[in-house]
């Protein structure tokens, strides 16, 4: 009986947020989490400290955002799917409010306050974001992408063909 109730609740949650899963798919990328090894490499590549302000674009369950917060950096996790925003806010309670989780379309956000950005979104959305990120972020800021690349800018460095690092000049 308990298994059935549990299963029913899961189905209900999926159904309630179905629209947002579909929306995320068409707006840029479905949910597909980065693996732990890649996350470690992305974070190391950013060389963060307590003064760093990082935006995690399309944050999903917040795994990158929470991992970044361990470096002492300030993290804003931006996610379009309210299910994941809720999940991050709940996780945040246990992490003593280490991150700021907001529900927004990454295309509508202002990036001028950040000196680092992490991103794991499809190339179509990366292209749409490229100009805003490179014009709004200050010189010397770092953008680290899992796998996918921008169209107009060359990476400063690529690690194992997966971690693509850009510097704003
Ligand atoms: C490939 S997953 C990456 C999740 C997480 N960043 C990671 O690496 O584990 C992409 C995430 O971006 C979100 N997303 C897709 N389009 C978006 C948009 N336009 N604005 C904000 N989030 C978006 C999806 O809901 C999904 O959670």
UniProtKB/TrEMBL annotation:
Keyword Disulfide bond: no
One Gene Ontology biological process: methylation
Classification via InterPro entries: FAM173A/B, KsgA/Erm, SAM-dependent_MTases_sf
Gene Ontology MF terms in the entry: protein-lysine N-methyltransferase activity; RNA binding
Plastid is among the record's keywords: no
Keywords recorded for this protein, A-Z: Membrane, Methyltransferase, RNA-binding, S-adenosyl-L-methionine, Transferase, Transmembrane, Transmembrane helix
Superkingdom, taxonomy of origin: Bacteria
Bilayer-crossing regions: 6-26
Pfam families: RrnaAD (PF00398)
Protein name per UniProt: Class I SAM-dependent methyltransferase
Organism annotation: Candidatus Dojkabacteria bacterium
């Amino acid at each position: 009986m308990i298994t059935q109730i549990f299963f029913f609740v899961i189905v209900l949650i999926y159904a309630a947020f179905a629209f947002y899963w579909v929306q995320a798919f068409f707006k840029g990328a479905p949910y597909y989490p980065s693996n732990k090894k890649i996350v470690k490499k992305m974070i190391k590549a950013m060389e963060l400290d307590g003064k760093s302000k990082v935006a995690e674009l399309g944050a999903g369950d917040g795994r990158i955002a929470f991992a970044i917060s361990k470096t002492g950096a300030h993290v804003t996790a931006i996610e379009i799917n309210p299910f994941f925003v809720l999940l991050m806010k709940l996780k945040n309670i246990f992490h003593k409010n280490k991150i700021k989780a907001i529900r927004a379309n990454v295309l509508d956000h202002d990036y001028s306050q950040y000196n680092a950005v992490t991103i794991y979104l499809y190339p179509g959305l990366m292209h749409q974001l490229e100009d805003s990120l490179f014009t709004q972020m200050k010189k010397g800021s770092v953008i680290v992408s899992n796998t996918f690349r921008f169209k107009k800018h060359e990476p400063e460095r690529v690690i194992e063909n997966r971690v693509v690092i850009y510097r704003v000049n």
